[in-house]
Task: inverse folding
């Protein structure tokens, strides 16, 4: 891992991916302890592209923390610039399937608010984002207290970016989801 990207080696081939180019980051538990703590991550630079898997890494928790930190530091400014230019930052959450064949749905964030399907919520109508430590769930509620989005952190691709981008818009700060 480098400050601006990550090198992976599969077989004899080495490839470099800049953190700023990673579209999707998946955190998950693999193997016989799949219901346990996160012990694997996968990333891809194209939404429909192949995943690069990182598991069985020495001192995985340190690797995971460093990867997430560099990823947010490098990719968040790209998404902030995108929304400032009037575009939407698209995120995906898992609704079915197993890695690597995941069924996902999209939601997006713009300078105006949260967009899910045809529905939209201006940031002014959203209460603060809730990160429940007991259930590891990301939840957003509207100003009437109704949940407009709720998802386990490990089912939200690039959850760190999503949370930080929402926090930025709501005037809060976050380091990790």
Result:
């Amino acid at each position: 891992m480098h400050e601006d990207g990550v090198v992976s080696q599969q077989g004899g081939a080495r490839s470099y991916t800049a953190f700023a180019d990673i579209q999707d980051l998946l955190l998950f538990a693999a193997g016989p302890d799949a219901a346990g703590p996160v012990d694997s991550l996968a990333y891809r630079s194209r939404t429909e592209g192949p995943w690069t898997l990182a598991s069985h890494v020495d001192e995985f928790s340190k690797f995971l923390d460093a990867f997430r930190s560099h990823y947010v530091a490098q990719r968040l400014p790209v998404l902030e610039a995108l929304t400032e230019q009037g575009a939407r930052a698209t995120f995906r959450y898992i609704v079915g399937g197993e890695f690597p064949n995941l069924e996902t749905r999209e939601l997006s964030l713009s300078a105006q608010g949260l967009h899910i399907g045809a529905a939209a919520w201006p940031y002014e109508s959203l209460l603060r984002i809730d990160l429940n430590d007991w259930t590891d769930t990301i939840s957003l509620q509207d100003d009437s207290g109704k949940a407009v989005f709720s998802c386990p952190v490990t089912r939200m691709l690039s959850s760190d970016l999503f949370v930080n981008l929402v926090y930025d818009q709501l005037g809060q700060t976050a380091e990790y989801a």
In short: The first strand starts at residue 5 and ends at 10. Helices lie at 60-84, 159-170.
